[in-house]
Design brief:
Length: 269
């Protein structure tokens, strides 16, 4: 009787350990219970910082369109004999500003501007301050757009790959949605984000997507060139485990011996 009970308990243990608990699957468990003041105090989508290798589209706008033409690259290049079109979304377009390894861009009339490490809004204010009042009688409006804002997502997602954001903003949930969601085998409690900082250093943060506080986490809003990795859970690891031939034979022999022992015990009762 004890032997049968042992066998039943062993089988039950294998079955239960091979299944994911339902509490490990949902995102943001209890998020609807977060106090309103916590949600209101959550950091707004932060401006991405300008980094070497970024491709920027910069538009200078004023009520005097003729006065700002020299500061808009499309007009500046056109005056030099260019085609005068933005050439779609091509990252090699001559109308965009490539940030060099030192964080500099070459701006019409203004020359070399150091924008590396600045936020989007700080870059806009900085360029406006270089134009007004030196060249214009009214302060222009400057708009900066990231043309190559992208993140990479890999691991246990349905569609791993590179995700582009045309508006220069992307959060973790949006990236996962565009990757077709996590697979059932992806760990929700330890999603890794590898981030390249404006000075070239790297940092690694983890996000627990089961936790309701993830939506107020500093890592919730992504930065350009972030790498998101979803590691496999224990059930996936067990599925991918290759049993060595010798161990497989040994396990088979043990199983046979257990069956024989069970049969003998049954006969002797």
């Amino acid at each position: 009787m004890k032997s049968k009970l042992f066998l039943l308990l062993s089988m039950a243990a294998v079955i239960f350990t091979s299944c994911n608990t339902t509490k490990d699957i949902p995102y943001m468990i209890g998020a609807n219970q977060l106090p309103q003041e916590v949600l209101q105090s959550a950091a707004k989508a932060s401006d991405p910082a300008v980094m070497p290798g970024d491709m920027l589209q910069i538009n200078v706008i004023s009520s005097n369109t003729e006065a700002v033409k020299p500061f808009n690259k499309i007009d500046y290049v056109s005056n030099l004999g260019g085609s005068g079109s933005m050439n779609g979304n091509s990252e090699n377009s001559m109308y965009y500003y490539l940030v060099d390894d030192k964080g500099n861009i070459e701006f019409p009339l203004l020359g070399t501007l150091h924008v590396g490490g600045m936020s989007k809004s700080a870059t806009e204010n900085y360029i406006a301050s270089q134009i007004y009042p030196r060249y214009l009688t009214e302060r222009p409006s400057v708009e900066v757009r990231f043309q190559n804002f992208r993140v990479s997502i890999l691991g246990e997602v349905n569609s791993p790959g590179v995700i582009k954001a045309t508006n220069g903003r992307l959060n973790l949930l949006e990236a996962i949605a565009q990757a077709g969601d996590l697979t059932i085998h992806g760990r929700r409690d330890n999603v890794m984000i590898v981030r390249t900082n404006s000075d070239g250093s790297r940092s690694i943060n983890t996000v627990n997507m089961n936790d309701k506080n993830m939506i107020v986490s500093p890592s919730f809003n992504l930065q350009q060139n972030d790498i998101i990795y979803v590691e496999p859970n224990s059930s996936r690891a067990r599925q991918s485990w290759n049993v060595p031939p010798a161990l497989s034979l040994g396990m088979s022999s043990v199983g046979t011996l257990i069956s024989i022992a069970t049969f003998i015990i049954t006969l002797t009762k």
